[in-house]
Design brief:
Layout: H1 2-18, E1 24-26, H2 29-37, E2 46-47, E3 61-62, H3 71-77, E4 81-85, H4 89-96, E5 101-105, H5 110-123, H6 127-143, E6 153-161, E7 164-167, H7 173-181, E8 184-185, E9 195-197, H8 198-204, E10 208-211, H9 218-224, E11 231-234, H10 247-259, H11 266-269
Parallel strand pairs: 1-4, 2-3, 4-5, 6-8, 6-10, 10-11
Antiparallel strand pairs: 6-7, 7-9
Helix pairs in contact: 5-6, 7-10
Length: about 270
């Protein structure tokens, strides 16, 4: 009988040492979706206001917008880890003062998104799952072939302001998506998302403008067409601007817009 008791205790100890159930709060929709992809969905206890995927996230407590998370609300929830991206570091530093562990990752490029998988999985002690996912994504990106003799020059719009648009420059993950989809980002800038007025866009002379914002300024684009000829595509899928696991859906969508044909990414979407 004692042998069975010792064996039971040993099994319980081994299981306890190899399983972790950290309480997690991600500070962006992209990090939220990444945690879900790593199998941590049930350990997420709160999300930012705009985290709506998967559907379960809608039922969780909200800790404010991703650009200004409510630190007091986070503290009251007593998470084990708060996970954010580089531009949120000042908030993460404040959160650490309360004795809460934080993880900072990058999301400005495809490479940074892959690295974030490794960083997060290592900290959460799920390295095997992180390695599996990152290797899968690397293979998918390497297998995407979008060779084209006439790659269109594209301007990616992510928002609007009174006198123009806000666009994604060549230092963003959206630029990587465009490159993988067969296009060329015409906007070169040290600022990731600069504001562009009518004159700026006319001087760039894009072949195409892809508007990923929720509100498309039709009258503004009408003014642009008075000076240059271009094709305008509007994209309403919100996942396009989220640097996370659904990036392959984004590539598939943009590829079809640019090439008028489908890109087979079924293995990457599973």
């Amino acid at each position: 009988m004692k042998k069975f008791l010792y064996l039971y205790i040993l099994i319980v100890m081994i299981f306890a040492e190899s399983s972790y159930a950290f309480k997690l709060i991600p500070l962006t929709p992209g990090v939220t979706e990444l945690l879900v992809e790593l199998g941590e969905e049930n350990n997420i206890i709160a999300v930012t206001n705009n985290a709506v995927f998967p559907e379960r996230m809608l039922k969780l407590k909200k800790i404010g917008p991703f650009f200004r998370p409510n630190i007091e609300s986070i503290f009251m929830l007593n998470p084990d880890y708060v996970i954010g991206v580089k531009f949120q570091k000042k908030y993460l530093d404040e959160i650490e003062k309360f004795g809460i562990k934080t993880i900072v990752v990058g999301d400005d490029s495809v490479d940074e998104i892959i690295k974030s998988v490794i960083v997060i999985s290592k900290e959460l002690k799920i390295e095997k799952e992180g390695i599996r996912l990152s290797e899968k994504w690397k293979t998918c990106f390497n297998n995407i072939k979008t060779v084209s003799k006439n790659r269109p020059k594209v301007l990616i719009v992510v928002g609007h302001y009174k006198n123009g648009v806000i666009a994604a420059a060549n230092s963003t993950f959206l630029s990587d998506i465009l490159d993988l989809s067969g296009g060329i980002n015409i906007l070169k800038s040290n600022v990731e998302y600069p504001k562009l007025n009518l004159e700026n866009i006319v001087s760039l002379k894009p072949d195409m403008i892809i508007d990923t914002s929720c509100k498309h300024n039709v009258s503004f684009y009408g003014e642009v067409k008075k000076y240059i000829t271009y094709k305008l595509f509007t994209v309403n899928e919100k996942y396009i601007t989220i640097p996370g696991p659904r990036i392959f859906l984004s590539i598939k969508k943009i590829y079809k817009l640019l090439n008028n044909k489908e890109l087979n990414l079924e293995k990457c979407l599973k």
